[in-house]
Design a protein that fits this description.
It is a single chain. This protein is mainly α and 370 residues long. Helices cover 51% and strands 6% of the residues. The protein has helices at 9-31, 40-47, 53-62, 70-84, 86-100, 102-105, 123-138, 145-148, 157-168, 215-220, 233-237, 275-285, 287-299, 310-316, 323-339, 347-360, 362-369; strands at residues 63-64, 67-68, 191-193, 210-212, 252-257, 265-270. A hairpin with a 2-residue loop joins strand 1 (63-64) and strand 2 (67-68). The longest helix has 23 residues, at 9-31. The model has no long low-confidence stretch (mean pLDDT 90). Bound molecules: zinc ion (ZN).
């Protein structure tokens, strides 16, 4: 939510092709449900009888009429419900269609998500059809290139996470911390659904809804902390989004003396334009606490000069630097940290910590450099 993240266009388009297959299935079940069980012929009619998708949907995923798979049963259940209350089913389809364009309409005044909204009775049956698509994405095989007409490689979740690596520069787009090396324990090999799939299953493989994040963010991001609440207008306005509105250039970050420990700092994150956005960011990711801990840990026992460069310390070792000189060098470090936001991990909090030290602890820094 802090740094801009978006899938490279080719990956976005390929994932969107798969997503459109899923949407087509949902719209059909809701708007033109078959008279009985979903059959192979129905799928043929839906996707065209020469489509390789027929084989993909075939017996393995749907099962036989008398021995349905879970997915096959889910298709039948949604179709049944749609047959019973066709008017409402059409409204649900329209809501899903509306939501599917969220990335194009995010900045429209009054924009909000429509599903599940007033259609909570449809959440479970829609989820049963929509969520397995994410499970297939997450599986090793994912979606085969030739079946889904993809221009790149087969589409898997790990491919998507890898596609984010070059633009990430090793930095988590959510918290500004390190992303972790691929293959290590701290690797961000899992993905964040900006709109969690348990509440918005129709967006589970939407190409503007999947992002890489560090492990810390992954674990902090829980459903009860979803940044957009029910995704109504106020909530959408009150949150940052990794590709649609990012926070790094909008927030102000200040380090202040901790009330509990005079030798520690507490980080405060504000957004003067829309205070709720910063509040949402902080609440969702526990960011002020994580950043405060991080800064304090770094300073612990080593004093404030730990943030200034080695060259800075070398220059003054054994000399008596004057305040103006130190102030100027600190200012340079602050400028460096600010110009490296999004390029170097932890730059935002580092700039804030340096500013605090410059404003309040110049004398102590000078002591440490002696
Ligand atoms: Zn993170």
């Amino acid at each position: 939510m802090l740094h801009k993240r978006e899938l490279p266009a080719s990956v976005f388009e390929d994932l969107n092709k798969v997503y459109q297959v899923k949407l087509k299935l949902l719209y059909w079940l809701l708007r033109a449900p078959p008279a009985g069980q979903v059959t192979k012929e129905d799928i043929e009619t839906l996707y065209g009888n020469k489509s390789k998708l027929l084989g993909w949907f075939g017996i393995r995923r749907l099962g036989k009429p008398d021995k349905r798979t879970q997915f096959g049963q889910a298709l039948d259940a949604l179709a049944n419900k749609a047959r019973l209350v066709p008017v409402e089913a059409e409204q649900v389809a329209a809501a899903i269609e509306h939501d599917a364009g969220f990335h194009q309409n995010w900045h429209e005044p009054g924009f909000e998500l429509k599903f599940p909204g007033g259609f909570t009775g449809w959440l479970e049956p829609v989820k049963a059809v929509a969520e397995p698509f994410y499970d297939w994405l997450a599986s090793e095989k994912g979606f085969a290139k030739d079946v889904f007409g993809l221009t790149g490689d087969d589409m898997t979740r790990s491919k998507i996470m890898q596609a984010y690596r070059p633009q990430s520069l090793g930095i988590c787009g959510y918290c500004d911390g390190p992303l972790g090396e691929i293959g290590t324990k701290a690797d961000a090999n899992d993905c964040e659904h900006f709109f969690p799939k348990s509440k918005w299953p129709h967006l589970a493989i939407h190409p503007a809804n999947l992002f890489a994040s560090c492990k810390g963010c992954n674990e902090t991001w829980k459903l009860d902390k979803t940044p957009m609440g029910n995704a109504d207008e106020a909530a959408i306005r009150g949150t940052y989004h990794p590709s649609l509105i990012t926070g790094a250039s909008l927030i102000s970050v200040a380090a202040k003396q901790s009330l509990k420990h005079p030798m520690r700092v507490s980080i405060e994150i504000r957004d003067t334009a829309v205070p709720e956005r910063a509040q949402t960011l902080v609440n969702t990711l526990d960011l002020e606490a994580r950043w405060s801990n991080d800064v304090n840990e770094k300073m612990d026992g080593r004093g404030v000069s730990v943030f200034v460069s080695k060259a800075f310390q070398d220059r003054f070792r054994g000399q008596t630097p004057d305040e103006a000189e130190i102030g100027e060098l600190l200012e340079d470090s602050i400028i460096w940290a600010r110009t490296n936001v999004g390029i170097e991990e932890r730059s935002i909090r580092q700039a804030a910590a340096l500013q605090y030290q410059k404003d309040c602890h110049l004398a102590q820094i000078i002591q440490e450099l002696l």
